[in-house]
Structure of L-seryl-tRNA(Sec) selenium transferase:
Amino acid sequence: MDPRRLIPRTDAALADPRLAPAVTRLGRDRVKAAVVDAQSRARAGDLSPEDVVPAAAASLPHRATSLRPVLNATGVVLHTNLGRAVLSEAAVEALRAAAGATDVELDLETGRRARRGRATLAALAAAVPDAGAVHVVNNGAAALVLAATALAAGREIIVSRGELVEIGDGFRLPDLLESTGARLREVGTTNRTTLADYRAAIGPDTGFVLKVHPSNFVVTGFTADVDVEALASLDVPVVVDIGSGLLAPDALLPAEPDATTALRKGAALVTASGDKLLGGPQAGLLLGTEPIVERLRRHPLARALRVDKLTLAALEATLTGPSTPTHLALHADPAELRSRSEALAAALRADGIPAEAGPSDGVVGGGGAPGVVLPSAAVALPAAWAGALRAGDPPVVGRVERGALLLDLRCIPPSSDDALLAAVRAVAEDGCTS
Ligand SMILES: *Cc1c(COP(=O)(O)O)cnc(C)c1O
């Protein structure tokens, strides 16, 4: 019999349970195209008929998105290139629940329109009782744009020359602020700015005084800057961009500013990111006095910066749920990290893989806590393995340092140790490491 007669028909292949998940994930048309392609390879004799369905399944992507989950072995807790904060399970569950139709803007009791995101805003207000009112926009940059536009367009923002910072990837805060039509009134010098400098710049055109946390560098030596408390004694609103999103002080990061402290010292408005130290989704947090937040909320631009139901859901779950992966990674016990690194290295050596356990320096990253070293532990492999590990499944991203590839365990939850081992073993077996 002609073996080509055994090639499954398209309808039969599409009904095969082995292709059902792909149909759900990618749609029937895309799977059909893969089946047709496999059928033609079988007709050409390049594939046996019983392999048509498995070959079609194997040719299709495992996910509906091309974004790939990665094991972050860099030791950088908030790695901007890896998407900053890892969401908690609670936040992921909330995303799922919010994905369909939700009551994001409807009061189910009365059947009337309700304030969008009210539960998330209530959770944020509860987390920072010193804020008279709160609002959420798309990211930290959007929070600053809204504040500058609503409070200082056509007027002046007074800012220290020591705080005109670039955040990363060419994102320069002064350029962003000036794009709103506000004028920057620079005061002081790179290393020293005094209260008298600010006071001398205040005039009828002043919109507000801005204090920016220079989050990704430190200036040491002959320096002076002015605390929020002193700035608040001036007769103009003080806006504080804390950047990192700590809502209250964290003993681990004593130099990192937080929203509660800034508000207690008299800030009229605090802006921060949701996906840095808070450990939530990308968002911009605005916390301040009731009249100022209300002005921002009612400004026409607010509509262009509003967050979607997914962000609202994930942010609420982050604020009300258990410790975030960011918090756990920051506070991971170095002794525990060391014993995990020793166990992993020993397991790899037993397979003939040249792995060594050793110390590693983790950092906060994401423009937070510059100069703070988080003592960590790593599995060291030959540096030449870095590319193959990045190309693996899941990709493993480590840090090449002093001729070795360090796989830092601080941002790898213990539940992923087996996946890390499997990824390293797969690279060793492939032999494509040098
Ligand atoms: C990160 C950061 C921003 C920008 O926040 P995004 O959420 O990335 O838009 C602004 N200011 C400071 C001080 C920051 O650290």
